[in-house]
Please model this.
Amino acid sequence: MSEDEIITELKRLLSHMRLMSVFQVTADTFMLYGLIVTLLAKSGTVAFLGAVLTQSHAIAVVVLLGLIDLCFTGIRYNDRRTGAGLIEELGDSLSDEAEAIVAQFKRYK
Model:
């Protein structure tokens, strides 16, 4: 691959990593909210995101959100690994644009 193609792929990968970060933070927030609401519920029902659920169903939703979060973690790990391979392909002599993109990528590690 040429340097331009690698830089283009790194840019695409960076935007994907940003999007996955947003999705993961959202999943984390919903999971923590659900966990707190479920644990603080005194009755057998829980009002979770506008829906009334039993406590056992609310726990199941929290577990599923945890699995979704785990999937986002795997996707982000794969993105980091792919990016590291692309950076390795670039070599040592980098243009200014490539150096800036590599610095942005390293921030996500």
Notes: Helices lie at 3-40, 55-90, 96-107.
